[in-house]
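Narrative of activities, Objective 1.

The group set out to show that a structural description can be obtained from nothing but a protein's sequence at a throughput compatible with the screening campaign. Below is one input-output pair from the validation batch, recorded exactly as produced.
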Amino acid sequence: MSFWTYTNRRIKSFSLLDLALIQIAVACFTILVIKFRPEIIIINKWWFIGIFLFVLLRPLYRFFVEI
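Output recorded for this entry:
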């Protein structure tokens, strides 16, 4: 089984909620990257790290644990 076949099979098990959580995680990661430029945004970076990890828990669980 190739890498892409395996990945496509796993991603097809994602629900709409999983996809939304991934989008929120990517948004938080993007804001975290921007956070390293303090003149652009003034928010504590730990909020974004916490949100990023929290919203990725379910999609990562479904990808790696559930079949």
